Amino acid sequence: MSNEAVVSGLPVAQGRARSVSVLLIGCVLVYGLLEAMILPALSLIQQGIGATPAQAGWIISAMALAGGVATPVVGRLADVRDRRVVFLGVLAIVCVGIALAGLASSVAVFAVGQGLQGVGIGLVPLAIGIVRDTEPPEKLRRTNGLLVGGMAVANAGGVLMAGPILSVLSYPWLYWIALIVLVPLMVLAVLVMPSYPPAVRGRVDWTGAVLLGIGLVALLLGVTFVASTGWTSAPVLGLGAVAVVALAVFVAVERRVVEPLVDLRLGGRTVTIVHLTAFASGVASVGLMIAVPTIVAAPAATGYGLGSTPVVTGLIMFPLGVLGAIVSPLAGRLERLVGSRMVMVLAGVLFLVAGLVMLAGRSDAVVLAVGAGLVGVAVGLGLTQGVNIIALTLPADRVASVSGVAYVLRAVGQAVGAQLAATVMALELTPGMQLPSWNAITWAFLGASAVGALVAAVSFGLPARLTSSR
Q1: Which H or E run includes 10?
Q2: Cα-atom radius of gyration of the chain, to the nearest Å?
Q3: How far apart are CA 448 and CA 428, in angstroms?
Q4: How far is Cα 103 from Cα 19, in angstroms, rounded to an integer?
Q5: For a tag on the chain, would you pick the N or C end, based on fewer CB atoms within 10 A?
Q6: How confident is the model over 327-347, as pLDDT tens digits?
Q7: Which Gene3D superfamilies does the protein's record reference (predicted)?
């Protein structure tokens, strides 16, 4: 069927399939922009809702915590229920969260709004599941790349856009602008998106969802305590123990139930490697990027600082999103040239090279921007290839949930990477200043490069070429 795609066994016109894909990319792009614009506005939000610095950190973490719990559930619902209904439901929850955050005058209401927005982290794996049913295999890789790349450019563009918007409007307008765009997109989805009934209706493993939620929340909360209490403090060790026990029980339960939330037996070594590389890439990318704002803001007296403003930080990091967006749709073409395995190996090598480039650049903004661009290429290729492997090799009724796990693991990797980099950089300070020494920053860069080398080495365990489950 050259002009048709298949949706749950039924033909769908190619033009309509393309409209659905554009709609999905648009929703992911808007959500990514909002998520990125919140960080530069944090101090204004803190003043607006009367939050202490500690509370400000927690309320921003609410989005990541809610997303970590909700994403696997959203993914599984998308596998066993009508994906159109699930997609519209997630958009509705996100819109309610945006409205609450925009109207909030207290910490509690704002935190609830942020938590509801966190459900939207599941939009990308949910969209990947819909694309799996909408696009033919030869176009699926490109659309997946556009989804991943759109999120990357949104994260970089949002940081740059926030400044001009906040210079003329109050911070709630960040939420109102997002809502003004998302609501029409949701109406358009009602009109354009066809039904995606599952091939086989199943159930959601709520026991597994609760265990996974407890494990992820304990892990992420434990990581947030590291900066203030240290790695060996009672809160960190206690929450770490809870996370280990909950996740161990989760694994045991998932191996026994008939319809697990995450089928750990599915995909075997290939899916395990994809998940491992997703976690490691999160660690490496944040590990590299966490040092950039410090280098930019530090005075020249440190021997490495640029003594500049956050605007320069945004400009240095902008290539990360732009190049990530450019290369993500090209991952499928590259795979046809060098094979599935070598695309993932290349992503790991680029992480390694990016760390070394940034280390060599020291206080050169241009070289740091080149390193950020290499990180963007590594993330774009690695993440896109990972979701392509999942989408093309697993049964349709598991694509969204397994993709969701990859995104959760990447988010967890980012949280762990941020704390690891911050801890390493705090081990040695510049004499007379509360700033890390260049030696400490060097170890942060080398650590991220080492993680990139690990990604490359592990990726050799992937199959040389993909074979579609279709």
Answers
A1: strand 10-13
A2: 21
A3: 18
A4: 33
A5: N
A6: 887 887 888 888 888 999 999
A7: MFS general substrate transporter like domains (1.20.1250.20)
